[in-house]
Amino acid sequence: MRVVILCLSLCLAFHGGNGQFLNALANLFRPVANIFGGGGRFTDDGTQRPKADGVEELFPSDCGRNVDSGTGKLCFPDGILCRDRVTRGGVQRFGGHNYWFSWQDNDPSVRNAKWDWFNARNYCRKRCMDLVSFETQQEYDWVKGFINGNVPYFWTSGRLCDFDGCDRPDFFPKNINGWFWSANQARLSPTNSSSAFHDWSFTGGFRPPRRQPDNREQLQQGGDSESCLAVLNNFYGDNIKWHDVACHHEKPIICEDVEGHLAFARQTFPNIRIP
After folding, report:
1. Is the peptide bond prior to 173 cis by the omega test (within 30 degrees of 0)?
2. Which of 10, 84, 99, 144 sits in a 20 to 30 Å window from 238, CA-based?
């Protein structure tokens, strides 16, 4: 998957109908309220400028979402962390891209860590990566080879377009046509397709069971919308399958190289050799 984008640009210039879609997706880098449905509670004033200090933090103190205060800041790539991403434990390669599996890291504190969806994306972004996106069966099958009984679930970059600007008719019904990979703004196949690639589960927590995505936490429990896509490992006796999950839940992660982030970091930090 080599989609060259610069997700760090806060002003995307596109034309026609797709421009409307991508302008809506640009909201992911504006107020965090758009992602978490928090109304005025969340603010996003943005990281002031890119830097390369190489500070290793599970939950960055200069950006990311603070779960106590409810505020969030966009993480720019860190030149040193981008450079060092290829030498840490848990890095694998497929299709010319680096993938990092958090549960394979050499550091136990990282290996056992879990992130909510927003902080997970920011952790990856500081390393010129983003949460994994599955656009081909081959990529997905390769990743599944690293999933064992000790990995109950993990986040992907999959996101439901249910925030401001997601009102195009072809996004409806949202549970079928409203999903996209936030790492590269590529739309997912309709969730009810019998021919296009996807791996939504046929079951979940509802009784009687409903196919995924089912938005159970909101519909049955009165909680948050299940607007983020996680891969669950036989959680409902369904093998390794896709499930919609509320974004505040914490899970291990897979980060994947993003060409746009790498290009940005190489241009911003010309004195750092970023592979």
Report:
1. yes
2. 99
Which DSSP string do the residues of 110-135 spell out, in sequence order? HHT--B-HHHHHHHHHTTTEEE----
Q: Is the pTM of this model over 0.70?
A: yes
Q: 262 with 82: CB under 8 angstroms?
A: yes
What 8-state DSSP symbol labels residue 246?
Answer: -
Radius of gyration of the chain (CA): 18
Residue 103 DSSP code = G
CA distance 55 to 57: 6
Q: Which pLDDT tens digits describe the chain residue by residue (275 residues)?
A: 443 333 333 333 333 344 444 444 444 333 333 332 332 233 344 566 788 999 999 988 878 666 566 566 778 999 999 999 999 999 999 999 999 999 999 999 999 999 999 999 999 999 999 999 999 999 999 999 999 999 999 999 999 999 888 999 999 999 999 999 999 999 999 999 999 999 999 999 999 999 999 999 999 999 999 999 999 999 999 999 999 999 999 999 999 999 999 999 999 999 999 99
